[in-house]
Amino acid sequence: MIHDLSVQEFVQLIKKREKKFTGVSVEDFNFTLRNYDLEGVEFEDCFININLEKCNLKNAKFIFCNLKTISVRDCSIENCYISDAISNQL
Predict the structure, then answer these.
(1) Are the C-beta atoms of 27 and 3 separated by less than 8 Å?
(2) pTM
(3) Which site among 1, 29, 35, 72 is 20 to 30 Å from 65 CA-CA?
(4) What are the DSSP calls for 31-57, one per residue?
(5) 4, containing H or E segment
(6) What pLDDT does 75 receive?
(7) Cα distance between residue 86 and residue 68, in whole Å
(8) Where are the domains of the chain?
(9) Using CA atoms, how far apart are residues 16 and 77, in angstroms rounded to an integer?
(10) Distance between CA 9 and CA 4 in Å, rounded?
(11) For each of the chain's 90 residues, which pLDDT tens digit applies?
């Protein structure tokens, strides 16, 4: 079951250093999450439809995620793990 999160809810969880998101949908391609530290954050069975610009995605995991419209422009992606994801951009 997918749980919809508003961008504002998602940002608050990131600011609280939440490290695991399972079965969530975050959709607002007009929104850019810029310069956030997402190191080690794990996304599983998620639909992510936002711009991640200049974010730290080191050691982040995207497992069984729909990333079709995600943007990771200028992100640090060292050891970023992507498995069984759907994407047009990566």
Answers:
(1) no
(2) 0.88
(3) 35
(4) EEEES-B-TT-EEES-EEEEEEES-B-
(5) strand 3-5
(6) 96
(7) 6
(8) 3-16+26-83
(9) 22
(10) 10
(11) 678 999 999 999 999 999 999 999 998 878 889 999 999 999 999 998 889 999 999 999 999 999 888 888 999 999 999 999 887 655
What tokens were used for 3?
A: 């749980």
> What separation in angstroms does the CA of 7 have from each of 25, 32, 33, 81?
10, 10, 9, 23
85 vs 88: CA distance, rounded Å: 10
CA-wise closest residue to 81 among 39, 52, 50:
39
Amino acid sitting at position 19: K
pLDDT at position 82 is: 93
- Residue with the two structure tokens 């810029």: 34
Q: What's the full length of the chain, in residues? A: 90
